Amino acid sequence: MLRDYFENICFQAANLIKDIIMKSSMLRYRSMAHKDRRIVVRKKGTSVVNKQVKRSIKEYALQRFGSKAYWPSLALYTEMRGQFIKGWLPIDYERYIWEPKINPPVYSNISEMKTFDFMLFGEFALKPLFLFISGNFYSAELEVMKVSQVKSFLYEYNDLIVVKEELTMGGKSVRIIHSSDFKPEELKEPRNYVIQPYVKQFKMLNELYPESVNTLRITTHLKANGSVGIKFVVLRFGINGSKVDNLDFGGHYIYFNSEGKPSNTAYDKLGIEVGERHINTGYLFSNIRIPKFHKILDLCKTAHKKFPYVHLIGWDICINDLGEPKLLEWNAFRPGINIVDANFGPFWAEDDVL
């Protein structure tokens, strides 16, 4: 009896701590939404969230999500879009209520284990040169490799490679180096790594911006009936010398409709229009045509069916110099829908959410 009592106390304490952490994180996201809304208003030079609009937003948040406290990010999206539209998901609700239900962390975290990609998705994924797992080097086929073999191969490879550390997000801990500069001793347990070839991208995408590998983010949704649909497609690209296309590192994006037609203008991480041409290369966004657009969408839908444990996945697809689509990464843990949803959604009807 005493043991059961203490186990129950520990269980309650763990849940209390978890609840405190979640509420603290929600407050942080709401504070960030207020800050970002001020930035959007300053850049646009006008605000549409007056007292009446704010009242409507709060009433909607209470009716749909159970609390008026979710209003800050909805107000941010309203400033971005220029009007309030019912159907958006507040990012604090999305991250801490909705996503854990549709993408349980025990499964979604697998997408952060980058050494699994080729094993799960085969030739659709970019084939790694080597994997570093539990202190040993392996081939893509999981054959143990000696350190001397790895060093010899990479020295003779004589090209750029990408070294990615597992369990990192948003381009963190990703290094682009020449293969001859690779030092095996720099990879340390308990971390795991994947060593990939650096992608030589499709001519059009290289002309758009040659300093980063510019990727399509394709978001798929596993529906209740088991079918997989496409929620949205964007192309992300770097600017101003950046080697990555991630929005958090200053990258921009353009949106594609279901037929593969791009938006005329690009957007930054806050959904602000940044012009019809690339800021550095001058490439006209409306001229972009993605080769095999519908085939790429089908590949992502097929890949999602191979991992039906989560309902929402963001696929990062590069197109190599031969015009072939290759999976660079996939994201089931916080796949990032809020900014695109604000500008081009809402993508989530009420029956999609709960």
Jot down its keywords.
354 residues; alpha+beta; D-amino Acid Aminotransferase, Chain A, domain 1; five-stranded antiparallel beta sheet; 37% helix
User: What is the share of helical residues?
Assistant: 25-40%
Computed Rg: 22 Å
Number of domains: 3
CATH superfamily of the largest domain: ATP-grasp fold, B domain
CATH topology of the largest domain: D-amino Acid Aminotransferase, Chain A, domain 1
> What is the spatial order of strands in the main beta sheet?
3-2-1-6-4-5
- Counting helices, strands and paired strands, the structural category is alpha+beta
Describe the structure.
This protein has 354 residues and is α+β, with helices and mostly antiparallel strands. It folds into 3 domains: 2-101, no CATH class; 106-113 and 201-353, D-amino Acid Aminotransferase, Chain A, domain 1, CATH 3.30.470; 127-197. It is built from 11 helices and 11 strands. The strands form 2 sheets. The chain has a 6-stranded antiparallel sheet with strand order 3-2-1-6-4-5. The chain has a 5-stranded antiparallel sheet with strand order 9-8-7-10-11, with helices on one face. A hairpin with a 5-residue loop joins strand 10 and strand 11 (325-331). The two termini are 39 Å apart. The model has no long low-confidence stretch (mean pLDDT 91).
List the helices and strands and how they pair.
Layout: H1 2-44, H2 51-65, H3 71-81, H4 91-102, H5 105-108, H6 117-121, E1 130-133, E2 136-138, E3 144-145, H7 147-157, E4 160-165, E5 174-178, E6 193-197, H8 203-208, E7 215-222, E8 228-237, E9 252-256, H9 293-305, E10 312-319, E11 325-331, H10 338-344, H11 350-353
Antiparallel strand pairs: 1-2, 1-6, 2-3, 4-5, 4-6, 7-8, 7-10, 8-9, 10-11
Helix pairs in contact: 1-3, 1-4, 3-10
